[in-house]
Write a structure and sequence with these properties.
The chain has 255 residues and is an alpha+beta fold. The protein folds into two domains: 42-151, 2-Layer Sandwich (Heat Shock Protein 90); 160-252, Heat-shock cognate protein, ATPase (Actin, Chain A, domain 4, Alpha-Beta Complex). 35% of the residues lie in helices and 25% in strands. It has five helices and eight strands; from the N terminus they run αββαβββααβββα. A five-stranded mixed sheet has the order 1-2-3-4-5, with helices on one face. A three-stranded antiparallel sheet has the order 6-7-8, covered by helices on one side. A hairpin with a 4-residue loop joins strand 3 and strand 4. The radius of gyration is 27 Å and the shape is globular.
């Protein structure tokens, strides 16, 4: 091979390596852009709001969602403010009484609300609020749960019955929820057959707190509803495929 041919070959190899480098850099850039621009569709149109307060008697940390619908926002804000008002009234009542032995220093109160978002569809969104209160003094916190489901377009809050075509749906839901809780083992050593039977009985008030995800219906239960308080908030999850014959097809679209 002549010297001229060797030089040409080196140039060609260098150009090939340059092109490969440019392509690899482009692919990496595309990968980063795709990852950074990915959006959790569950959270589309939902912003986080927060209220944080602290005074000599309490700490308060509340988070709640804000949607594109003012009517939903008004309902959520009313609920949140009601919870905060109730907490502050409790604080005032406690600290306006005679101090306990040792004074008030160990009895600082705290209050927290956080939330999770579930989405059946672009139109149907559910919020599960976890509420936690502590009165200090070495006492354990008190937890509770509230779940609300809305039509994001109209702002209307749904009730559970609107998703079912079978009027006897509660009988099936009750049985499946109890089985899910029992089989899951989540109750652990707090399992109580009688409490579970009562708390998951086919009564509408037992299933007020529900959320709809993309593929399942989730029920939330207060502490002491199904088991001793130590077990905390509990949930039961039922897949739509297991109750398809009970559901209104128009409410679920392609789910």
């Amino acid at each position: 091979m002549t010297k001229k041919s060797q030089t040409a070959l080196i140039v060609i190899i260098a150009l090939i390596l340059l092109v490969i480098g440019i392509l690899l850099a482009g692919w990496k850039s595309m990968g980063k852009t795709s990852k950074n621009n990915s959006v959790d569709k569950t959270l589309e149109g939902i912003e986080n709001k927060s209220i944080v307060e602290s005074d000599p008697h309490y700490d308060l940390n509340v988070s709640y969602p804000s949607t594109i619908n003012p009517q939903i926002n008004s309902q959520i804000e009313s609920f949140v403010q009601g919870q905060i008002t109730g907490f502050k009234a409790r604080v005032d009542d406690f600290f306006n009484k005679a101090p306990p032995p040792g004074g008030f220093s160990a009895w600082r109160h705290s209050f927290d609300i956080n939330y999770e978002v579930f989405r059946l569809s672009e139109q149907t969104v559910s919020f599960k609020f976890g509420i936690r209160f502590s009165g200090g003094g070495g006492q354990g916190p008190v937890n509770s749960v509230v779940a609300q489901t809305f039509d994001i377009q109209t702002g209307r809050q749904y009730v559970l019955a609107e998703f079912f075509s079978d009027p006897n749906y509660l009988n099936v839901i009750s049985e499946m929820a109890a089985k899910n809780l029992k089989d899951s083992g989540r109750l652990g050593d707090q399992y109580n057959e009688e409490m579970l039977k009562s708390g998951a009985s086919p009564v509408e008030s037992n299933f007020l707190n529900f959320a709809l995800s993309e593929d399942s219906l989730i029920f939330f239960f207060q502490p002491q509803q199904l088991s001793p308080a130590a077990a905390g908030v509990q949930y039961a999850e039922i897949e739509y495929d297991d109750i398809r014959n009970l559901l209104k097809p128009e409410m679920f679209g392609n789910n």
